[in-house]
Amino acid sequence: MTMPLITRPKECVKNLDTYFPNGIDVFFDNVGGRLLDEVLGRINRRARIAICGRISEYLITPEEYHRPRNMYRIGLKDAKMQGFFVYDYQKEYPKYEEQLAPWIREDKLRPLEDIGQGIEEMPNALISLYKGTRGGTRMVRVA
């Protein structure tokens, strides 16, 4: 089964019903804000949601944060939503690398990479990371 990897929140919100016509069972979120709220509006019974960040709101004031409308659906759908801190699992990284590296080599997993050129690209790379204007892992080659 092929599942879309959504990397641009605005595009994702527009297309959630296309990507997930039967609702959402599992969602890993590091965007937060409107995207998370829209996903909660489409969760299935006993959905599982992992929260690892909210990059869409890192550069705005608390007054500008998205006000969730669909949080009640977690209880309504008997769903589970849990946050976690990625560095709590640092000792597991070698195991993940061992599993993921062959998938990448065998083209079963295709990471998206967005690579800029030159140190002068650093400010734009950082801004695009927080604004969600580019997709994939954002990097800048400086040498």
Automatic annotation (TrEMBL):
Q: Which Gene3D superfamilies match?
A: Medium-chain alcohol dehydrogenases, catalytic domain, NAD(P)-binding Rossmann-like Domain
- Going by the entry's taxonomy, the superkingdom of the source organism is recorded as Bacteria
A molecular function (GO) term: oxidoreductase activity, acting on the CH-CH group of donors, NAD or NADP as acceptor
For this protein, the record's SUPFAM superfamilies field holds: NAD(P)-binding Rossmann-fold domains (SSF51735)
The name under which this protein is listed is Zinc-binding dehydrogenase
| UniProt organism field | Costertonia aggregata
